[in-house]
Amino acid sequence: MAQRSRPAGGRWATAGRVAVVFGFICLIAFPQGACADASSGSKTPPALAAPAAAAVETTAQAAPTAPLRFDGAKAWDHLRRQVAFGPRPAGTPALLKTRQYILDQLKAAHIKTQEQPFMAETPAGRVAMVNVIGTIPGRRPERIVLASHYDTKRAPQFTFVGANDGASSTAALLELGRVLAGSQPTFTIELLFLDGEEAVNWTWAGTDNTYGSRHYVAAAQTSGALTGLKALLLLDMIGDRDLTIRRDSNSTPWLVDAIWSAAARIGHAGTFSNELTTIEDDHVPFLKAGVAAVDVIDLDNPTWHTAQDDLAHVSEASLQIVGDVILAALPAIEQRLATAR
Description:
By secondary structure, the protein is an alpha/beta fold. It folds into 2 domains: 15-62, no CATH class; 69-339, 3-Layer(aba) Sandwich (Aminopeptidase). The chain is built from 9 helices and 11 strands. It has helices at residues 16-29, 46-62, 72-84, 93-108, 163-180, 211-223, 253-265, 284-288, 316-339, and strands at 3-5, 11-12, 112-122, 125-136, 140-149, 187-194, 229-236, 245-248, 272-277, 279-280, 293-297. Strands 3-4-6-5-7-11 form a 6-stranded mixed beta sheet, with helices on both faces. The chain has a 3-stranded antiparallel beta sheet with strand order 2-1-10, with no helix packed on it. Strands 8-9 form a two-stranded parallel sheet. The chain is globular, with a radius of gyration of 24 Å. It starts with a strand and ends with a helix.
């Protein structure tokens, strides 16, 4: 869900090249055919093979790394499947089905998973909630967390399936996990699916919200794991057909700059607006704990917390834009963190 804060008045509803090089060396150094065909799998005598092998190794090392590709169609399928479960408030059977779907998708991508259950004290009494954590090991143990809430708003007065508010960011996070799983990132990537972001009562007030993020931060402080958490990138409500994501003034400025610069570089400056807004969301408990955090959210759409937050009002193209931007921004974020003292 998330809320916008206003200065006054409360809250309301953002192998070919290697073969060529090998053959070229062989033609020059051994014109009578002492070298084997690079594609045959046969070997030359060890004394003759060394120079060519060294050249091949050098060429292979110089080859560029293939870019990571976010697949909006896969993300769209994740979104659609969540919506098919129906309304998914914390503590409901539908959210249990959603959580199992998330776990299944992470395991299919060979991502280590962990569930973090807890009891939340809410205005409606104690509610069982569960955060889901997926871990992609990096060359360094310090973590960059990519997060989304996966619950939907309790709306007894109408059917609320949260295609945008809950399903869109969770769908993007699952696809980002698939893409990043085999990438060997510099920093360990943690995928965090948060329960209980939505208020139990209709109005966002006090501590009746952000249950999962507050529990995660408190548990990490107690265990000492928070010291290894270097940045949080929160996604929320990113599937709107008319997508405009504004800079959140609560978010850590350098993280905002890294993401908005990446958006401009790959042609999405029109979607990532420089207009400021102020958002209360799952990133706030991390900010209060001293963690650099950013909220990527579009809170300005007429379907927010209405029955119209459905498949007809979300877009695969919006998921693609946000996925591409996050992947484009991650190298700069890693570089900043790697050089920080």
